[in-house]
Design goal:
4 helices; single chain; mainly alpha; two-stranded antiparallel ribbon
Length: 105
């Protein structure tokens, strides 16, 4: 599931729609959820879970419920998710570093 901040969500329920879209140009943040498994999970299980999840996300009932909540169901492959997470970590690491943020315990 993903709701992008920086574009109006379909149901008008996201924060940006309430705020009138007043973010600076280039501001792009997405709220997303995913299913994660332990690294040692057999590939056959990963593939089956992905297949069944994609099938569920394509159902009219799930699409309708997500839309009602102002979200959009999107699916991908495990490899695409891995890449997305790596890109997001690098992106936000740079944002934190550029802002002078330091890790705390």
């Amino acid at each position: 599931m993903k709701v992008k901040i920086g574009q109006r969500c379909p149901a008008g329920a996201c924060m940006l729609a309430r705020m009138g879209g007043g973010f600076a140009a280039g501001f792009d943040v997405a709220v997303w959820h995913c299913l994660m498994l332990p690294a040692a999970t057999p590939l056959s299980i990963v593939e089956r879970l992905n297949r069944e999840t994609v099938k569920a996300l394509q159902s009219a009932e799930v699409k309708e419920e997500f839309s009602r909540q102002g979200a959009e169901a999107k699916s991908s492959t495990p490899q695409a998710l891995d890449n997305y997470i790596r890109v997001e970590i690098a992106r936000w690491r740079k944002v934190a570093r550029d802002a002078g943020m330091k890790p705390t315990n």
